[in-house]
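Q: I'm writing a short methods note and want an example of a predicted protein-small molecule complex. Could you take the sequence and the SMILES for fe (ii) ion and return the bound structure as C-alpha coordinates? Please keep the output block clean; save any remarks for afterwards.
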Amino acid sequence: MTLPLRTPDGLPVEVPDYTLLHLSDTHLTSAGVLYNQRVDADLALDRAVVEIRRAIGNGHQFDALVVSGDLTDTGDPEAYRRLAGMLEPLNIPVIWCNGNHDVRTTYHRELLGDEEGSTDSKIQFHWVGADLGLRVIVLDSTVPDAGHGYLDPRLPESFAPILARPAPGGTIVVLHHSPLPPPSPLLSYFALDRRSRQTLFTTIAGADVRLILSGHHHMAQSGMLGSVPVVVAGSTAIRTDPFARPGHERTTSSASMNLIRIYPDTYTCSVIPLDGADEVFDLDEAQCAGIIDRHPI
Ligand SMILES: [Fe+2]
Ligand SMILES: [Fe+2]
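A: Understood, no commentary inside the block.
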Protein backbone atom coordinates (compact mmCIF):
# COMPACT_ATOMS: atom_id res chain seq x y z
CA MET A 1 0.00 0.00 0.00
CA THR A 2 1.43 3.37 -0.99
CA LEU A 3 -0.42 6.41 0.28
CA PRO A 4 0.20 9.87 -1.14
CA LEU A 5 2.05 12.03 1.38
CA ARG A 6 -0.07 14.94 2.53
CA THR A 7 0.62 18.47 3.67
CA PRO A 8 -1.44 20.96 5.72
CA ASP A 9 -1.99 23.29 2.76
CA GLY A 10 -2.66 20.62 0.14
CA LEU A 11 0.47 21.53 -1.79
CA PRO A 12 2.62 18.69 -3.11
CA VAL A 13 5.17 17.31 -0.68
CA GLU A 14 8.57 18.90 -1.25
CA VAL A 15 11.04 16.65 -3.01
CA PRO A 16 14.77 17.37 -3.08
CA ASP A 17 16.49 17.79 -6.41
CA TYR A 18 19.65 16.17 -5.06
CA THR A 19 20.44 14.03 -2.03
CA LEU A 20 23.97 13.60 -0.76
CA LEU A 21 25.62 11.70 2.04
CA HIS A 22 28.47 13.57 3.67
CA LEU A 23 31.06 11.64 5.68
CA SER A 24 34.32 12.98 7.01
CA ASP A 25 37.47 12.21 8.95
CA THR A 26 37.34 8.45 8.62
CA HIS A 27 41.01 8.32 9.73
CA LEU A 28 41.58 4.73 8.65
CA THR A 29 44.82 3.50 10.19
CA SER A 30 47.39 0.94 9.10
CA ALA A 31 46.32 -2.65 9.73
CA GLY A 32 46.42 -3.57 13.40
CA VAL A 33 46.76 0.04 14.60
CA LEU A 34 44.03 1.70 16.65
CA TYR A 35 43.24 5.35 15.94
CA ASN A 36 44.48 7.37 18.91
CA GLN A 37 45.34 4.01 20.51
CA ARG A 38 41.63 3.56 21.27
CA VAL A 39 39.37 3.39 18.23
CA ASP A 40 39.07 0.78 15.48
CA ALA A 41 38.42 3.29 12.68
CA ASP A 42 37.40 0.56 10.22
CA LEU A 43 34.79 -0.73 12.63
CA ALA A 44 33.59 2.83 13.24
CA LEU A 45 33.25 3.47 9.50
CA ASP A 46 31.44 0.17 9.13
CA ARG A 47 28.66 1.57 11.36
CA ALA A 48 28.13 4.26 8.73
CA VAL A 49 28.18 1.68 5.95
CA VAL A 50 25.57 -0.44 7.76
CA GLU A 51 23.35 2.62 8.19
CA ILE A 52 23.71 3.57 4.51
CA ARG A 53 22.90 -0.01 3.46
CA ARG A 54 19.82 0.08 5.69
CA ALA A 55 18.72 3.31 3.98
CA ILE A 56 19.25 1.83 0.52
CA GLY A 57 17.35 -1.29 1.60
CA ASN A 58 14.47 0.98 2.65
CA GLY A 59 14.38 2.47 -0.84
CA HIS A 60 16.36 5.67 -0.26
CA GLN A 61 18.54 6.90 -3.09
CA PHE A 62 21.62 9.07 -3.01
CA ASP A 63 23.20 11.08 -5.78
CA ALA A 64 26.67 11.21 -4.27
CA LEU A 65 28.68 10.32 -1.21
CA VAL A 66 31.13 13.07 -0.26
CA VAL A 67 34.05 12.20 2.02
CA SER A 68 35.70 15.43 3.12
CA GLY A 69 39.19 14.45 4.12
CA ASP A 70 41.41 12.84 6.70
CA LEU A 71 40.45 9.72 4.82
CA THR A 72 43.37 7.92 6.40
CA ASP A 73 45.31 8.72 9.55
CA THR A 74 48.83 8.40 8.18
CA GLY A 75 48.45 7.99 4.41
CA ASP A 76 49.01 4.22 4.34
CA PRO A 77 48.20 3.10 0.74
CA GLU A 78 46.52 -0.01 2.06
CA ALA A 79 44.20 2.11 4.23
CA TYR A 80 43.04 4.00 1.10
CA ARG A 81 42.32 0.66 -0.56
CA ARG A 82 40.33 -0.52 2.45
CA LEU A 83 38.39 2.75 2.44
CA ALA A 84 37.53 2.43 -1.24
CA GLY A 85 36.68 -1.23 -0.64
CA MET A 86 34.15 -0.23 2.02
CA LEU A 87 32.48 2.72 0.28
CA GLU A 88 32.59 2.04 -3.46
CA PRO A 89 30.44 -1.16 -3.29
CA LEU A 90 27.57 1.02 -2.04
CA ASN A 91 27.10 1.98 -5.69
CA ILE A 92 26.83 5.67 -4.91
CA PRO A 93 29.25 7.94 -6.79
CA VAL A 94 31.97 8.75 -4.25
CA ILE A 95 33.59 12.19 -4.21
CA TRP A 96 36.91 12.13 -2.37
CA CYS A 97 38.61 15.11 -0.74
CA ASN A 98 41.94 14.92 1.10
CA GLY A 99 42.75 16.28 4.54
CA ASN A 100 45.84 17.17 6.53
CA HIS A 101 46.30 13.56 7.72
CA ASP A 102 46.33 12.27 4.14
CA VAL A 103 49.43 11.97 2.01
CA ARG A 104 48.63 13.88 -1.15
CA THR A 105 50.66 11.75 -3.55
CA THR A 106 49.26 8.48 -2.19
CA TYR A 107 45.73 9.88 -2.19
CA HIS A 108 46.14 10.92 -5.82
CA ARG A 109 47.45 7.50 -6.73
CA GLU A 110 45.01 5.36 -4.78
CA LEU A 111 41.74 7.29 -5.09
CA LEU A 112 42.00 9.74 -8.00
CA GLY A 113 43.55 7.34 -10.52
CA ASP A 114 46.70 9.43 -10.87
CA GLU A 115 49.32 6.74 -11.33
CA GLU A 116 52.14 9.29 -11.16
CA GLY A 117 51.02 10.36 -7.69
CA SER A 118 51.36 14.05 -8.49
CA THR A 119 52.66 16.31 -5.70
CA ASP A 120 50.65 19.30 -6.92
CA SER A 121 47.24 19.92 -5.40
CA LYS A 122 44.26 19.04 -7.58
CA ILE A 123 40.91 20.74 -8.03
CA GLN A 124 38.13 18.32 -8.96
CA PHE A 125 34.87 19.02 -10.76
CA HIS A 126 31.98 16.57 -10.49
CA TRP A 127 28.52 16.71 -12.00
CA VAL A 128 25.97 15.12 -9.73
CA GLY A 129 22.35 13.95 -9.93
CA ALA A 130 20.16 12.22 -12.49
CA ASP A 131 20.36 15.37 -14.62
CA LEU A 132 24.07 15.90 -13.81
CA GLY A 133 22.99 19.44 -12.93
CA LEU A 134 24.66 19.91 -9.55
CA ARG A 135 28.29 20.96 -9.79
CA VAL A 136 30.56 19.83 -6.97
CA ILE A 137 33.98 21.46 -6.80
CA VAL A 138 36.57 19.86 -4.53
CA LEU A 139 39.44 22.01 -3.33
CA ASP A 140 42.65 20.79 -1.70
CA SER A 141 43.16 22.93 1.42
CA THR A 142 46.12 20.93 2.72
CA VAL A 143 49.75 21.94 3.15
CA PRO A 144 52.08 18.93 2.86
CA ASP A 145 53.56 18.00 6.27
CA ALA A 146 51.47 20.63 8.06
CA GLY A 147 48.14 20.51 9.87
CA HIS A 148 46.65 23.89 9.06
CA GLY A 149 44.69 24.75 5.92
CA TYR A 150 45.64 27.09 3.11
CA LEU A 151 44.15 28.22 -0.21
CA ASP A 152 46.10 29.81 -3.03
CA PRO A 153 45.35 33.56 -3.10
CA ARG A 154 45.11 33.30 -6.92
CA LEU A 155 42.00 31.11 -6.54
CA PRO A 156 39.46 33.93 -7.20
CA GLU A 157 41.22 34.84 -10.44
CA SER A 158 41.48 31.27 -11.71
CA PHE A 159 37.88 30.45 -10.75
CA ALA A 160 36.26 33.58 -12.14
CA PRO A 161 35.72 32.18 -15.68
CA ILE A 162 34.49 28.85 -14.30
CA LEU A 163 32.02 30.29 -11.81
CA ALA A 164 30.84 32.86 -14.33
CA ARG A 165 28.88 30.00 -15.91
CA PRO A 166 26.22 28.93 -13.40
CA ALA A 167 25.39 25.24 -13.12
CA PRO A 168 21.72 24.22 -13.65
CA GLY A 169 21.43 22.96 -10.07
CA GLY A 170 23.96 25.30 -8.51
CA THR A 171 27.37 24.53 -7.06
CA ILE A 172 28.66 22.92 -3.88
CA VAL A 173 32.24 23.49 -2.77
CA VAL A 174 34.01 20.80 -0.73
CA LEU A 175 37.23 21.31 1.22
CA HIS A 176 38.65 19.64 4.31
CA HIS A 177 39.51 22.65 6.47
CA SER A 178 36.29 24.37 7.40
CA PRO A 179 36.00 28.13 6.85
CA LEU A 180 34.34 28.43 10.27
CA PRO A 181 35.78 29.23 13.70
CA PRO A 182 37.11 25.94 15.14
CA PRO A 183 35.75 24.51 18.41
CA SER A 184 38.96 23.66 20.31
CA PRO A 185 42.58 24.75 20.96
CA LEU A 186 44.41 22.34 18.63
CA LEU A 187 41.86 22.81 15.88
CA SER A 188 42.28 26.57 16.25
CA TYR A 189 45.99 26.16 15.55
CA PHE A 190 45.36 23.72 12.69
CA ALA A 191 42.59 25.84 11.16
CA LEU A 192 42.14 27.20 7.67
CA ASP A 193 44.18 30.37 7.95
CA ARG A 194 42.12 33.54 8.03
CA ARG A 195 43.48 34.87 4.75
CA SER A 196 42.46 31.63 3.03
CA ARG A 197 38.98 31.99 4.47
CA GLN A 198 38.86 35.43 2.86
CA THR A 199 40.19 33.92 -0.37
CA LEU A 200 37.33 31.43 -0.41
CA PHE A 201 34.85 34.18 0.37
CA THR A 202 36.15 36.27 -2.53
CA THR A 203 36.23 33.27 -4.87
CA ILE A 204 32.57 32.40 -4.44
CA ALA A 205 31.17 35.91 -3.99
CA GLY A 206 28.32 36.41 -6.44
CA ALA A 207 28.62 32.90 -7.87
CA ASP A 208 26.06 30.10 -7.77
CA VAL A 209 27.60 28.36 -4.73
CA ARG A 210 24.75 27.12 -2.55
CA LEU A 211 26.67 25.27 0.10
CA ILE A 212 30.16 24.56 1.40
CA LEU A 213 30.85 21.09 2.82
CA SER A 214 33.87 20.51 5.03
CA GLY A 215 35.27 18.41 7.85
CA HIS A 216 38.37 18.56 10.09
CA HIS A 217 36.54 19.69 13.25
CA HIS A 218 35.40 16.17 14.18
CA MET A 219 31.96 17.43 15.10
CA ALA A 220 28.82 18.38 13.23
CA GLN A 221 28.64 22.16 12.82
CA SER A 222 27.00 24.74 10.66
CA GLY A 223 27.63 28.39 10.01
CA MET A 224 27.97 30.91 7.20
CA LEU A 225 30.70 32.24 4.97
CA GLY A 226 29.14 35.51 3.93
CA SER A 227 25.76 34.49 2.58
CA VAL A 228 26.74 30.89 1.83
CA PRO A 229 25.93 28.15 4.36
CA VAL A 230 28.79 26.00 5.60
CA VAL A 231 28.16 22.49 6.90
CA VAL A 232 30.79 20.48 8.77
CA ALA A 233 30.35 16.72 8.98
CA GLY A 234 31.47 15.02 12.17
CA SER A 235 34.09 12.29 12.09
CA THR A 236 32.98 8.69 11.65
CA ALA A 237 35.46 7.79 14.42
CA ILE A 238 35.58 10.41 17.20
CA ARG A 239 33.87 13.61 18.31
CA THR A 240 35.44 16.79 19.63
CA ASP A 241 34.08 17.91 23.01
CA PRO A 242 33.22 21.62 22.71
CA PHE A 243 32.60 21.72 26.48
CA ALA A 244 36.08 20.52 27.43
CA ARG A 245 37.92 22.44 30.14
CA PRO A 246 39.52 25.62 28.76
CA GLY A 247 42.70 24.83 26.89
CA HIS A 248 41.88 21.12 26.69
CA GLU A 249 41.51 19.15 23.50
CA ARG A 250 39.09 16.36 24.43
CA THR A 251 37.34 13.82 22.23
CA THR A 252 34.86 11.03 22.77
CA SER A 253 34.22 7.84 20.81
CA SER A 254 31.11 9.22 19.18
CA ALA A 255 30.42 9.48 15.47
CA SER A 256 28.04 10.90 12.91
CA MET A 257 27.49 11.56 9.24
CA ASN A 258 25.33 14.11 7.46
CA LEU A 259 22.42 13.74 5.08
CA ILE A 260 22.23 16.73 2.72
CA ARG A 261 19.12 17.43 0.71
CA ILE A 262 19.14 20.16 -1.90
CA TYR A 263 15.72 21.63 -2.72
CA PRO A 264 14.92 24.20 -5.39
CA ASP A 265 14.94 27.04 -2.85
CA THR A 266 16.77 25.69 0.20
CA TYR A 267 18.76 22.80 1.61
CA THR A 268 18.59 20.68 4.73
CA CYS A 269 21.35 19.01 6.68
CA SER A 270 20.33 16.13 8.94
CA VAL A 271 23.00 14.88 11.32
CA ILE A 272 22.84 11.09 11.57
CA PRO A 273 24.43 9.86 14.81
CA LEU A 274 26.25 6.54 14.41
CA ASP A 275 26.32 5.60 18.08
CA GLY A 276 23.36 3.23 17.97
CA ALA A 277 19.99 4.03 19.46
CA ASP A 278 16.92 2.09 20.54
CA GLU A 279 13.80 2.34 18.41
CA VAL A 280 10.95 4.34 19.90
CA PHE A 281 8.34 3.77 17.19
CA ASP A 282 8.04 2.77 13.53
CA LEU A 283 4.56 3.61 12.27
CA ASP A 284 3.59 2.09 8.92
CA GLU A 285 1.70 3.97 6.18
CA ALA A 286 -1.73 2.88 7.42
CA GLN A 287 -0.94 3.97 10.99
CA CYS A 288 0.29 7.34 9.71
CA ALA A 289 -2.90 7.69 7.62
CA GLY A 290 -4.98 6.89 10.69
CA ILE A 291 -3.34 9.69 12.67
CA ILE A 292 -3.76 12.13 9.76
CA ASP A 293 -7.43 11.22 9.40
CA ARG A 294 -8.01 11.93 13.09
CA HIS A 295 -6.61 15.45 12.61
CA PRO A 296 -8.67 17.07 9.83
CA ILE A 297 -7.64 20.55 8.78
FE1 LIG B 1 40.51 14.63 11.17
FE1 LIG C 1 41.96 17.33 9.58
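A: Remarks, as requested: The helical segments are 41-57, 77-87, 104-111, 155-163, 185-189, 194-204, 285-293. The chain is about 25% helix and 25% strand.
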